[in-house]
């Protein structure tokens, strides 16, 4: 007796009756792999304190997940198409759960990084499978609506990750942010077996020759590119970063040349000559560049400058999540009436406005100044990403839905990694420069001079700056106590500490404003390029019968 549902949708007389329940399973699966990244930004301080992580260790704890996740999606999406999309989803969820348990038990930086990398492998199976199973389960008339819900779930996970992590950290340690994945992943695996119909390429037997060489080349160039994006901006453009850049460049050229010559490539790169596909892929990457970059510095501002706890920070990101659902609902109304080009361009323009509003941030800004940009940014996500994802998935035949999901998801990861790398680098350099200028002006005005070593440490990050302020206050109080007594010494120490805190807050707030200018310019230019690329009226996806005929012709050739 077979476990769970065993009848594929193609063998059913009509639409699958429990398809919306199946979508719930797919959305739960998507939720945990996105939350695994966003929740860690909140758990990071507790991990630093508990494990004694250095800045390099912490960076790779966060990014060790991203490299295998982005690099493996394309080949694993193709394998899922051939053998079993549902099998890839269930296996990915089990790997993700096992790696999460391992991550909660280790007590070293290397152990956490290895566990996070294993979670990334699981996520690389899960992400393309969710989209390919969605497309295979829903009839074309309902697919856009289902993708809108899928996209809204991704936006929800961006905001809910910090909320869940913050709630757990109120009473538990950082390990709880790993363990919370386990019951959700197991629930998703069981739900997939009983609610999600099995699916694989209809001509899987004929597609036995998976383009493994093309898949390997994609792993090499995407993995090297992500490694370079992480290593170069954060740790300097030394031998490792330069080598990764060269490998990524050579690997990309080899990948393109191989795919152009292969009769059944893992990814037909000629698709990028189609304006709807190229424009949609670029729009997804640019949007997540802006969103992940903004999320990176907004969560830091809320915690370090405005002083919110991790839980409070998560709560205050919820307006973004709610707005994503509203934007998705508007997409269902706007796209059929005005077309994809207008809807996506409108969404990207709205997103540019949201980032531009953050250029007004200064040291006196309160949370109220962030609410409107968060809402507008959420609306923009809902407006743009659903039609783009639908267009990307509609560009692939039914036999390559896993590859289509992988292309969409790889665009998200590349964009997000670039956003954190580019905007994070701008933020760090601007903050360091601002704090150095503030210290120089204070010394020139006759104020106390911050020791060079302390200033250098404070310039590393806003968190380090606040720690230095506390230590400076202690040192001033200790030095003054023998002369003026403990009470006055404590007051002097507190005053000096507050002076440094004010300087750190101002330097970081000004850096947020400056970084937002860069983000708005990038997204604004990208909006113009995407609007140019997208056709006025995108061609309709081929019906399934036509796709199958096209595939048979390809096989004969």
TrEMBL record:
Source species, domain of life: Bacteria
Identify a single GO molecular function assigned to this protein: transmembrane transporter activity
Compositional bias segments (type: Basic and acidic residues): 547-557
Protein name as catalogued? Transmembrane efflux protein
Please list where the region (Disordered) is annotated: 538-557
Task: Tell me what topology the record assigns in the membrane.
Answer: Multi-pass membrane protein
- What keywords are assigned to this protein? Antibiotic resistance, Cell membrane, Membrane, Transmembrane, Transmembrane helix, Transport
- Coarsely, its chief localization is membrane
């Amino acid at each position: 007796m077979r476990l769970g549902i065993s009848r594929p949708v193609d063998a059913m007389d009509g639409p699958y009756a429990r398809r919306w329940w199946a979508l719930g399973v797919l959305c739960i699966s998507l939720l945990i792999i996105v939350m695994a990244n966003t929740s860690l930004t909140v758990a990071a301080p507790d991990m630093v304190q508990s494990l004694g992580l250095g800045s390099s260790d912490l960076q790779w704890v966060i990014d060790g997940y991203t490299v295998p996740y982005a690099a493996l999606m394309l080949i694993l999406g193709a394998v899922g198409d051939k053998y079993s999309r549902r099998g890839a989803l269930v296996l990915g969820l089990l790997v993700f759960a096992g790696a999460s348990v391992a991550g909660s038990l280790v007590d070293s930086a290397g152990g956490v990084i290895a566990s996070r990398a294993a979670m990334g492998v699981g996520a690389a199976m899960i992400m393309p499978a969710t989209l390919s199973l969605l497309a295979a389960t829903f009839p074309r008339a309902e697919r856009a609506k289902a993708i809108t819900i899928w996209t809204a779930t991704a936006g929800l996970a961006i905001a809910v990750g910090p909320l869940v992590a913050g709630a757990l950290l109120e009473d538990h340690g950082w390990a709880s942010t790993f363990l919370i994945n386990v019951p959700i992943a197991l629930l998703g695996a069981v739900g997939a077996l009983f609610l999600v119909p099995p699916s694989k390429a209809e001509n899987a037997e004929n597609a036995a020759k998976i383009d493994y060489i093309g898949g390997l080349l994609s792993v090499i160039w995407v993995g090297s590119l992500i490694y370079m994006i992480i290593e170069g901006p954060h740790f300097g453009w030394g031998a490792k970063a330069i080598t990764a850049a060269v490998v990524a460049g050579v690997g990309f050229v080899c990948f393109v040349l191989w795919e152009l010559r292969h009769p059944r490539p893992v990814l037909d790169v000629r698709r990028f000559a189609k304006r709807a596909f190229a424009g949609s892929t670029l729009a997804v990457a640019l949007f997540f560049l802006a969103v992940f970059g903004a999320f990176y510095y907004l969560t830091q501002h809320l915690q370090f400058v405005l002083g919110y706890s991790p839980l409070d920070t998560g709560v205050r990101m919820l307006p973004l999540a709610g707005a994503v659902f509203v934007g998705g609902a508007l997409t269902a109304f706007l796209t059929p009436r005005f077309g994809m080009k207008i809807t996506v361009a409108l969404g990207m323009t709205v997103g540019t406005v949201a980032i531009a509003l953050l250029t007004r941030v200064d040291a006196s800004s309160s949370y109220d100044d962030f609410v409107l940009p968060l809402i507008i940014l959420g609306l923009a996500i809902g407006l743009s990403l659903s039609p783009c994802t639908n267009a990307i998935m509609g560009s692939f035949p039914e036999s390559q839905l896993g590859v289509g999901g992988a292309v969409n998801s790889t665009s998200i990861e590349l964009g997000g990694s670039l956003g954190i790398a580019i905007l994070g680098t701008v933020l760090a350099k601007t903050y360091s420069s601002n704090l150095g200028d503030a210290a120089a002006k204070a010394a020139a005005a006759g104020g106390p001079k911050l020791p060079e070593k302390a200033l250098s440490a404070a310039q590393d990050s806003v968190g380090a700056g606040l720690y230095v302020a506390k230590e400076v206050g202690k040192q001033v109080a200790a030095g003054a106590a023998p002369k003026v007594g403990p009470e006055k010494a404590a007051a002097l120490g507190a005053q000096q500490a507050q002076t440094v805190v004010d300087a750190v807050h101002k330097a970081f707030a000004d850096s947020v404003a400056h970084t937002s200018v860069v983000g708005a310019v990038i997204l604004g230019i990208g909006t113009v390029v995407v609007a140019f690329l997208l056709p006025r009226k995108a061609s309709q996806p081929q019906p399934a019968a036509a796709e199958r005929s096209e595939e048979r012709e390809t096989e004969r050739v």
